[in-house]
């Protein structure tokens, strides 16, 4: 028995994501998972945790020297992360 209202799973998921306004959150999660790709393996190795909250990316580092370097590169990193995401997701970066 065939149903006339069948949909592709991808369409159902896309509709669900749009209805529940999950696009931004999924983009944030994808951005965090691509951190190493954006900043490089060396910087990512000294990064302990990443967290997004209200457009602010919180980055915890294990090296004070790296933290000061990243603070000086903040605007460049923000631009690269937003370019990778395809939209302005990161408005501010806080290094801890």
- Ends apart, CA distance between termini: 59 Å
Query: What's the helix-strand series?
Result: HHHHEEHHE
| Estimated helix fraction | 55-70%
Find the count of extended strands (DSSP E, 2+ residues).
Answer: 3
| CATH architecture annotation name | 2-Layer Sandwich
Mean pLDDT: 89
* Coarse morphology: elongated
Spatially, the strands of the biggest sheet line up as: 1-2-3
> Rg, please?
18 Å
Report the CATH topology name: GMP Synthetase, Chain A, domain 3
Number of H- or I-type helical stretches: 6
Ranges where pLDDT stays below 50 over 5 or more residues in a row are none
Short description:
The protein has 6 helices and 3 strands, in the order ααααββααβ. It has helices at 9-19, 23-33, 35-39, 41-45, 64-72, 74-85; strands spanning 47-53, 56-61, 92-95.
Describe the protein.
With 96 residues, this protein is of the alpha+beta class. The chain has one domain (9-95): GMP Synthetase, Chain A, domain 3. 55% of the residues lie in helices and 18% in strands. A three-stranded mixed sheet has the order 1-2-3. The longest helix has 12 residues, at 74-85.
List the helices and strands and how they pair.
Elements: H1 9-19, H2 23-33, H3 35-39, H4 41-45, E1 47-53, E2 56-61, H5 64-72, H6 74-85, E3 92-95
Parallel strand pairs: 2-3
Antiparallel strand pairs: 1-2
Notable characteristics:
6 helices; 3 strands; GMP Synthetase, Chain A, domain 3; about 100 residues
């Amino acid at each position: 028995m065939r149903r006339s209202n069948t949909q592709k799973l991808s369409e159902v998921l896309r509709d669900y994501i749009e209805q529940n306004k999950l696009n931004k959150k999924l983009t944030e999660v994808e951005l965090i998972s691509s951190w190493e790709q954006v900043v490089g393996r060396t910087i990512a190795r000294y990064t302990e945790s990443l967290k997004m909250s209200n457009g602010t990316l919180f980055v915890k580092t294990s090296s004070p020297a790296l933290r000061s370097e990243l603070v000086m590169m903040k605007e460049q990193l923000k631009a690269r992360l937003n370019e990778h995401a395809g939209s302005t997701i990161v408005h501010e970066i806080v290094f801890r």
